[in-house]
């Protein structure tokens, strides 16, 4: 096991359907041979790249393979176990509730299947704490967004802390932020936390400013926020003033070509400003990575020390959506694990 796998980690930006591993994907492909889907249609392998449009086409292909509650339950369980095996101790999984007339899957049963997978992993003793965010897909418009918030509210009330928030995601090139402010505000009023994909593509300063007015509890990607890439000092100031953590997904951005190389990744900008950065995978299946690999890439690309890597992981605990008691438990766990880990890899404890 590498240092990065042994490092306890939290994963805060993982879409269920883009987190499906090669092994699980092969099972799904075999179960549905009539679809004639090849694995290279569901993942971007090492050295390959796609445009953002191609990424969203790829997600549609993946969705064809997960159409029943059995599929959803199975992929959720596998994804959770894989994160646990990679040393993730706390995971916030997110997914867009989907209905499917051919199988009778409803949005409600979709969410229930994921929550059941989370509970079953817990009963089986899988060493990971998992929470769930309902995703709003910005392709589907404000009416569906409000329905998703209502559904989130029901589960928020009935699941004793499993559902912690909502996410706004989907193709950033479609629809406009203004349509999603009201649903996001409604979610906030219920007590749900907000994770918002923002500035994933350039020239969206106006909608970014609107989102920041909420403000969200965490920002997804934030690739084009700072002045050097067409954002602005004004936007940066708001983010710093509100201390809004940013979920950074290095390989996803590289393979989706919104960032030209690892060393050009905006991790550098935000980290050097001392701003809260959380390293995440986005979709460990579709982008063919895992969280330990993302930490390793951050270390080598930005010349970080193992102590700095440890701190990024430890500080990420502050940005989880679960309550303070969960944060304290995780911090205690990290502190318990640190001496053994640093000893094993012959590192100095700062
Ligand atoms: C690459 N950057 C990204 N930007 C925006 N949204 C993304 C995304 N990657 C994934 N999604 C969102 O997550 C869905 C797939 O997982 P779920 O079916 O919800 O589990 C996609 O359809 C899209 O809405
Ligand atoms: Zn995402």
From TrEMBL:
Pfam families: A_deaminase. InterPro entries: A_deaminase_dom, Ado/ade_deaminase, Metal_Hydrolase. GO terms for molecular function: adenosine deaminase activity; metal ion binding. The keyword Zinc applies. One of its GO terms (biological process) is nucleotide metabolic process. Keywords: Hydrolase, Metal-binding, Nucleotide metabolism, Zinc. Its cofactor is Zn(2+). Belongs to the metallo-dependent hydrolases superfamily. Adenosine and AMP deaminases family. Monomer. This is Adenosine deaminase domain-containing protein. It comes from Chiloscyllium punctatum.
């Amino acid at each position: 096991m590498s240092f990065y796998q042994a490092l306890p980690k939290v994963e805060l930006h993982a879409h269920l359907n883009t987190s499906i591993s090669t092994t699980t994907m092969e099972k799904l492909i075999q179960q549905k041979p009539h679809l004639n889907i090849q694995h290279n249609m569901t993942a971007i392998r090492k050295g390959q790249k796609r445009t953002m449009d191609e990424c969203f086409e790829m997600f549609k292909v993946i969705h064809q393979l997960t159409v029943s509650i059995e599929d959803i339950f199975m992929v959720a369980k596998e994804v959770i176990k894989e994160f646990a095996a990679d040393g993730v101790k706390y995971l916030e999984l997110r997914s867009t509730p989907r209905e499917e007339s051919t199988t009778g899957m409803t949005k409600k049963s979709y969410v229930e299947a994921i929550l059941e997978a989370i509970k079953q992993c817990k009963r089986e003793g899988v060493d990971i704490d998992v929470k769930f965010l309902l995703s709003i897909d910005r392709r589907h418009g404000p009416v569906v967004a409000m329905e998703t918030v209502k559904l989130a509210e029901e589960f928020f009330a009935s699941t004793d802390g499993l559902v912690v928030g909502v996410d706004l995601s989907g193709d950033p090139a479609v629809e406009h932020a203004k349509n999603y402010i009201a649903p996001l505000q409604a979610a906030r009023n219920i007590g749900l936390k907000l994770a918002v994909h923002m500035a994933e593509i350039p020239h969206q300063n106006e909608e970014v400013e609107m989102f920041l007015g909420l403000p969200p509890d965490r920002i997804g990607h934030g690739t084009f926020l700072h002045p050097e890439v067409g954002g602005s000092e004004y936007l940066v100031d708001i983010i710093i003033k509100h201390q809004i953590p940013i979920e950074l997904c290095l390989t996803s951005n590289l393979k989706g070509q919104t960032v030209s190389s690892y060393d050009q990744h905006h991790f550098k900008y935000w980290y050097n400003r001392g701003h809260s950065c959380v390293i995440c995978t986005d979709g460990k299946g579709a982008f063919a990575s895992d969280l330990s690999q993302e930490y390793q890439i951050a270390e080598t690309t930005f010349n970080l020390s193992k102590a700095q890597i440890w701190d990024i992981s430890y500080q990420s605990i502050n940005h989880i959506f679960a309550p303070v008691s969960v944060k304290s438990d995780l911090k205690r766990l990290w502190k318990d694990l640190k001496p053994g880990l640093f000893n094993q890899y012959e590192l100095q404890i700062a």
